[in-house]
Design brief:
- The chain is 40% helix and 14% strand.
- It is globular and about 70 Å long.
- It is an alpha/beta fold.
- It has two domains: 115 residues, Aspartate Aminotransferase, domain 1 (Alpha-Beta Complex), CATH 3.90.1150.10; 216 residues, Aspartate Aminotransferase, domain 2 (3-Layer(aba) Sandwich), CATH 3.40.640.10.
């Protein structure tokens, strides 16, 4: 993974520990985007029509292949928030929905602002047990959660999700993968998740304005989708009433620059090897967790969990954040702490550098 650093110019200026906020733009993607817009400049409608007809189906096929999902169960959306809201417009009211306390607002708010009965599982070191207790008592029909929590980096146990799906087969599991997709070699069809949505500007390094929704066949009849537009019909005036499930999420024109960027980045990650990326991130996670634990900078929930992401929220005030910024560390203030997040272009040496800065400040 060390050789990839040259692809990301930001890394020559900063210690970039902020992918959970914004993933980096690679030089290769920038070159592709420039060529795309140059083609648009000199080709106008000829180029755009061809891109819509040829490129966008290729994007959908690339997303489906990367995450191992059927193409007709794959939808292209501008971001997770839009995708989830479109889906919930097709869900009957008065569902018993289980959410995680303090989950990302774009996960919880769309449910809370509609007419559903909401329960909450506490977000702590016992997250899975907290979810299970609610499932046993609250007659839950939908579990919606982030696979990795945005502020703390707590990652849900997939074995737990498989177990509850077996015990409660009618339970619909809806997951936000925005802080997850691009960090592991993931097979959607073999997962216990029924619906997975993700924006792609973080760990998938695709820039803004692109994302996707993935579905299992079994949940399609649980939603009555009404989002519609000419693009959803593949520009067929006779097809308004015969729109496929996934195309309800694509009612209008899709930006070929943004979605072409998604295709480019998925192919880039595939070329690096998702298994190799996952392995590297596991090493970074273990190293960072031990270092931050030794400095007594992590909360109990993070310390006591066996498996963690590469997102860490450490104890730190404005003064520490300012010192990190002055030292060229890009990170984020989240809640009462400071959030670091590491991707494959980060190194163990950078974690060592962070530890030195933090040790001198505490």
């Amino acid at each position: 993974m060390e050789n990839t650093r040259k692809h990301f110019p930001v890394l020559s200026q900063y210690l970039y520990a902020n992918t959970a906020s914004t993933g980096l733009l690679s030089e290769q993607l920038m070159t592709w985007r420039q060529e795309h817009d140059l083609d648009y400049l000199i080709g106008g409608s000829l180029m755009k029509i061809k891109s819509v007809q040829e490129l966008l189906p290729q994007v959908r096929a690339t997303v489906a292949k990367f995450f191992k999902c059927a193409e007709d169960n794959t939808a292209l959306v501008q971001n997770f928030s839009l995708g989830l809201n479109m889906m919930l417009e097709g869900l009957e009211e008065n569902q018993n929905v289980l959410l995680v306390e303090n989950d990302y607002p774009s996960v919880n708010w769309p449910f809370e602002c509609r007419k559903h009965h909401i329960s909450y599982a506490a977000l702590d070191e016992n997250l899975e047990q907290n979810i299970y207790e609610k499932l046993k008592t609250d007659n839950i029909s939908i579990l919606a959660l982030s696979l990795v929590q945005w502020a703390t980096g707590i990652k849900i146990d997939f074995n737990f999700l498989r177990d509850i799906k077996k015990e409660y087969p009618e339970l619909i599991i809806i997951a936000d993968g925005t802080q997850f997709c691009g960090t592991v070699d993931f097979n959607f069809e073999e997962s216990p998740i029924d619906i997975l949505g993700s924006s792609a500007y973080k760990w998938l390094l695709s820039g803004y304005g692109n994302g996707f929704m993935l579905f299992k066949n079994e949940v399609k009849d649980r939603f009555n989708l009404n989002t519609v537009g000419f693009n959803a019909s593949n520009h067929n005036l006779q097809s308004r009433d015969n729109i496929p499930f996934n195309k309800h999420f694509e009612p209008g024109h899709l930006d070929t620059l943004n979605f072409g960027s998604l295709k480019f980045s998925l192919e880039y990650l595939e070329g690096l090897g998702m298994a190799e990326i996952e392995n590297h991130l596991q090493h970074l996670s273990k190293k960072a967790k031990k270092a931050f634990t030794d400095l007594h900078l992590l909360d109990k929930a993070t310390v006591e969990r066996n498996d963690h992401s590469t997102i860490f929220n450490i104890k730190g005030d404005d003064a520490l954040y300012q010192k990190l910024t002055e030292q060229g560390v890009l990170c984020s203030q989240r809640g009462a702490g400071i959030r670091f997040s590491f991707h494959f272009y980060n190194t163990e040496a950078e974690i060592d550098k962070l530890v030195k800065i933090l040790s001198s400040a505490t």
